[in-house]
Structures are given as C-alpha cells and as structure tokens.
Design goal:
- Keywords: ATP-binding, FAD, Flavoprotein, FMN, Kinase, Multifunctional enzyme, Nucleotide-binding, Nucleotidyltransferase, Transferase.
- By secondary structure, the chain is α/β, with parallel strands linked by helices.
- The chain folds into two domains: 164 residues, 3-Layer(aba) Sandwich (Rossmann fold), CATH 3.40.50; 125 residues, Elongation Factor Tu (Ef-tu), domain 3, CATH 2.40.30.30.
- Helix content is 33%, strand content 28%.
- The protein has eleven helices and 14 strands.
- The strands form three sheets. The chain has a six-stranded parallel beta sheet with strand order 1-4-3-2-5-6, with helices on both faces.
- Helix 8 packs antiparallel against helix 9.
- The chain is elongated and about 70 Å long.
- The mean pLDDT is 92.
C-alpha cells in the first residue's frame, strides 16, 4: 500500500503524485471498526469494477483533538496502526492529511475545489454522518451538490449491531468500562496495542511470574484497569499470556501512570528493547489491592490458569 502525507491546499508537487482516477473514501477511521469497514469495502468494490485504485483519506491529528476535545489525544488506531490495518484490508493508497488551524477554517466549497478536484477522483465514498468544512458545515448532501457531476458520491448507511450504531465513541466506551468482548465485536477483531519492552522493577520475576513491561509506541486508548487474557506477537511468533494493566496498588500507593505488564506462557527469551503487539482477548477481572503478597500470588495463579484455558479453547 502506498502511503502519502498531504496538506491543504494540495501543492503542485503533491498533485503529480495524487492526480489520477481513483475511488476515495474519506473519514477519520479511528478504530477501523465494522462501520468503517463497510465504507472501505464499498470503495474497494467500486475500484475493482472501474479498474482504478481504492484510496483512503484520513486526518492527523484527529480533528476533535484540534478542536480541544482532550480524550482524542489518545486513539484506537494511531496513524501507524491504522496504516497496518488498511493495508491488511487491501487498500491501495492511504492519504494522511494534516489537520491544522488552516484546514479547520476551510469552507466545504474550498475543500472540494482545492482538495478533491485536483486529485481527479472518480468516486467519493463517505459515511452517513460525514461532515467537513468549517464547524462541520458540509454534509453528504452538501458533497453531492458540490460534486456538480464532476465525481460520483456514495453515502453508506449506518452499520448497526444489536440495534446500536457502530461508532468509534461506542468502542471507546466499551474499552474504558471493561466491556472488552463487546468492543472487540464492534471492531471485528481483538483490540490491540504496540509497544517496546522496557526494564521494569523486576518484581514479577521474584514472585515467579516474570513480565515484559510495555512502553506504548503510539498514543493508544488504554482500556479499563485490570487483568486480561492476551496474545502477544513477536517477530512472527504468537504467544498466549496474561496481562495486568494497572497501578500495582498492592505494592505502590498513588501511582500516577498505569503500567502494562504481560506474562507470556512457556516463554523464556530475552526481549528487552523489542517490539510486541498485544491483542486484548478477554477481560478477566478489575485490578484490586491485596492484603499480602501471598494473596496476590495465589490470585495470579488463578488468573493465569483462567487465561490459559480461555485462550486454548479459542484456538481449537
């Protein structure tokens, strides 16, 4: 997949790279959830029918972050993660547009004239709730009007699950409240993060459960504190494990930032400095403070046994 960075308005040099017939899906696509996948699927179907590339236009930073909504400083799929997922889905091109103060003030008309028309798009695909231009003044209907027959516009209806519209906001809410299975169902895959293994305090090894301490590589949304059954990918290998995401209240008072500590089953390699991808498969329990280290160790054994059973059954 080709990945290009763009800014508004498109420059002459950028025009040479992007000016060719293509089907273009536009959106934030944070999470690349089932609703987003419907938009992407339509773009790919149209592109295949027309024998032209299927492209995605997304924005960085998240527009809501620029508008001052602090929770969007963390994302379900930061740029590199989003790129990996889109490539896996078979997208031909990904355009990451710099969302800055200038673009924020652009009218819908100017966005079309100075961004879409120079790209020679054949068809633009958007979700039913797509907005663009200053203060979100542009809607799918606006886009259809501004196209003036110069490109086709297709609007994808909301994708629902159990009567609720699938959205990035709903996925976030489920992750933050410990409803991991529901979040994963909306994503169509386990929620995952990427990080580098760093040196911890070594306490896990002393109590019989050595852990890999993860420093996240990108600003991922951090799920609810607690214990998870996970799968870890490392250099093409996949290992089952159990992860504690929390503030270690049994040992530390008022730890400000939660840590991610994963114990991998049947694993003894030295992976300090290596990158791990962690899939959150199941939420086992909330984090809690234990009265003694022996109580904690006993619970860790139960957590590990539960995670092993669950992950083994899923792989059958």
């Amino acid at each position: 997949m080709q990945s290009l960075k763009l800014s508004y308005p498109i420059t002459a040099s950028d025009t040479q790279a992007v000016m060719k017939p293509q089907v273009l899906a536009i959106g934030d696509f944070d999470g690349v959830h089932l609703g987003h996948q419907e938009v992407i699927k339509r773009a790919m179907q149209d592109a295949q029918r027309l024998n032209i590339p299927a492209s995605i236009m997304t924005f960085h930073p998240h527009p809501r972050e620029v508008l001052g909504q602090q929770k969007y400083t963390s994302l379900l799929t930061p740029v590199e993660q989003k790129q990996r997922l889109l490539e896996h889905l078979g997208v031909d091109r990904m355009y990451t547009v710099s969302f800055d103060a200038e673009l924020m003030k652009v009218t819908p008309e100017d966005f079309v004239e100075n961004m879409l028309i120079p790209m020679k798009v054949d068809t633009v695909i958007v979700g039913f709730d797509f907005t663009f231009g200053y203060l979100g003044a542009g809607t799918p209907d606006t886009l259809c009007e501004l196209a003036h027959g110069r490109f086709a516009v297709e609007v994808i209806r909301p994708f629902q699950r159990n009567g609720c519209k699938v959205s990035s906001t709903l996925v976030r809410e489920h992750l933050l409240t410990g409803q991991l299975e529901e979040a994963n169902a909306l994503l169509g895959r386990p929620y995952s993060v990427n990080g580098t293994v760093v040196t911890g305090d070594g306490r896990g090894k002393t109590i019989g459960f050595p852990t890999a301490n993860l420093d996240l590589l990108e600003p991922f949304v951090t799920p609810a504190l607690g214990v998870y059954a996970v799968r870890a990918s490392f250099e093409g290998q996949v290992f089952n494990g159990v992860m504690n995401l929390g503030k270690k209240p049994t040992f530390v008072e008022n730890l400000e930032k939660p840590t991610l500590e994963v114990h991998l089953f049947d694993f003894s390699q030295n992976i300090y400095g290596k990158e791990l991808s962690i899939e959150f498969v199941s939420y086992l329990r909330p984090e809690r403070k234990f009265g003694s280290v022996s109580e904690l160790i006993a619970q860790i054994h139960r957590d590990a046994d539960q995670a092993k059973t669950l992950l083994t059954n899923l792989s059958k």
